[in-house]
Amino acid sequence: MRQPLIVANWKMNMDNVTGFELMDDMLDQLDTMEEVAVAICPPFPLLESFAELFDGTNLYLGAQNMYWEDKGAYTGEVSGPMLKALGCDFVILGHSERRQYFGDTDETVRRKIEAALRNDLKPILCVGESFSENQDGQTLDVISRQVSIAFAGLDEIHAAEMVVAYEPIWAIGTGLAASGEGANDVIGAIRALIGDMHGHEVAQQVRILYGGSVNPDNIAQFIGQGEIDGALVGGASLDPEGFVRIVAVTHEAKTRAAR
Ligand code: PGA
Fold first, then answer.
1. Which residue is catalytic, options 97, 129, 161, 167?
2. Mean pLDDT, the chain, whole residue set
3. N or C terminus of the chain: which is more exposed, having fewer CB within 10 Å?
4. Residue 231: its pLDDT value, please?
5. What is the C-alpha separation between 204 and 57, in angstroms, rounded?
6. How would DSSP label each residue in 133-184?
7. Which residues lie across from 247 on neighbouring strands?
8. Long-range contacts of 147-154 (CB under 8 A, 24+ apart)
């Protein structure tokens, strides 16, 4: 069975004072819920001290982006080996905000995925359709393009290490989450596509999350679906009580399912 995964995407929020206050308010509680993997993705400047803070806990550390070269004259960029050396386990790649504001494309995301995997970082590949693509019935076309470019040519071991987050762009930060069934259908289609490309066994190992306005009140409707392995949480991950509740609901649902 795939271990559920809840990822906190802090985006460009929290500094070296407020970030610690936020972690202080939730670390102990998060650490007790062992059935759920929890990954915190703070801004780059917090990674090193969070790696120390998480030492000896069940929490995982993730970055929100990286460059595809390992080193060199690329002013302002951060590489895979740097993230690995700090103790990162995961890296979010291809978030729609990166695609929208910073020029990430399916091709550059693909290069970043290769760089992450060769540096022993697990990519959290974000995919999702815009509102107009959704209205035009193009959701599955868009998702298929994004997923197939990202997964093409990966060997089975690397493909199985991937995490995918289905994040409809219209649901991000809007309060308008997808329905549990709707998200489950798209995520099922993503898993089927990965199965076509890399075989059933690999597809069964890949964790696929839902993201977009997840909160403590709607998490149950996603986590209760067969294909959804967890959530990528933005805004609600900045509220310690709410985020602990999201993880607790997931923990409860998955331990119940396992009984
Ligand atoms: P949201 O963001 O939870 O605030 O909608 C999710 C994300 O962008 O990853």
1. 167
2. 97
3. C
4. 98
5. 27
6. HHHTT-HHHHHHHHHHHHHTT--HHHHHH-EEEE--GGGTTTS-PPPHHHHH
7. none
8. 147/190, 147/193, 147/194, 148/193, 148/197, 149/106, 149/107, 149/109, 149/110, 150/94, 150/106, 150/109, 150/110, 150/113, 150/125, 151/194, 151/197, 151/198, 152/110, 152/197, 154/113, 154/117, 154/198
Pocket test for ligand 1, best of 92, 172, 215 (most atoms within 8 A of CB): 172
Q: Which pLDDT belongs to residue 258? A: 75
Tell the residue number behind the tokens 């149950």, with chain if given: 220
**Catalytic, out of 95, 158, 198, 251:** 95
- Min mean pLDDT across 151-155, 246-250, 253-257 is at 253-257
How far away, in angstroms, is 72 Cα from ligand 1 center?
Answer: 32
Angle (nearest 5°) at CA 228 between 244 and 239: 20
| 167 included as an active-site residue | yes
Tell which atom from ligand 1 comes closest to the C-alpha of 235: 4
Q: Please write the tens of the pLDDT for every residue from 133-148.
A: 999 999 999 999 999 9
Provide the whole-model pTM: 0.98
* Residue 1 predicted with pLDDT over 90: no
Which of 6, 9, 96, 209 is the pocket-test mutation for ligand 1 (most atoms within 8 Å of CB)?
Answer: 9
